[in-house]
Write a structure and sequence with these properties.
alpha+beta, 26% helix, globular, single chain, 7-stranded antiparallel sheet, 24% strand, 170 residues
Length: 170
């Protein structure tokens, strides 16, 4: 899947994807990722807004750090715009949605939290005041050799109350 997307090239393009997904009806069934890097299912949308190079050939520390820095800068830029619109985001720890500590053996995390928890440790969330949705940004990576992704998620408000705040950096 890496490298197959036609991703938004600028901050304005990325914001357009976020705006479109925030109002787009949720699919009735699970959708596979499209060539535009978006997919979804009942109650959610996900989008890859930016992806770094992959690390199959070279996973050197300097190369990975440079890629992480670029993705983090793009996240910070988008977060500043979204914060200007909707106020400070919540930081949500995604580790509980992996289910490792859940005593229920049949636990399945609601989407998109289940998918995001397999890619990222935390996300920044803005609750949309005009509807029962939230928007999140996260940085994730499916495997150390794969690209680092800047991800956007839109979900139903009902999926988020189960979330716990992410631990604050000391």
């Amino acid at each position: 899947m890496p490298g197959q997307y036609h991703l938004p090239a600028s901050t304005d393009d990325r914001l357009s994807v976020i705006d479109r997904l925030s109002t787009l009806p949720f699919p009735l069934t699970e959708e596979r990722p499209g060539s535009d890097g978006t997919w979804g299912g009942p109650g959610y949308h996900l989008a890859v807004l930016r992806e770094s190079q992959d690390f199959w050939e070279d996973r050197g520390e300097e190369i990975v750090e440079a890629a992480e820095s670029e993705i983090e800068a793009d996240l910070a830029t988008l977060a500043a715009v979204l914060t200007g619109r909707w106020g400070e985001p919540e930081s949500v720890d995604l580790s509980p949605f992996l289910g490792f500590d859940n005593p229920d053996p049949d636990f399945v995390a609601p989407e998109p939290l289940g998918s995001l928890s397999g890619l990222a440790g935390a996300m920044q969330v803005w609750r949309l005041p005009s509807c029962d949705r939230w928007i999140a940004l996260a940085i994730g990576q499916a495997d150390p050799e794969w690209p680092i992704w800047l991800l956007a998620a839109v979900g139903e408000a009902s999926a988020l109350p189960q979330a716990r705040p992410a631990p604050r950096a000391q």
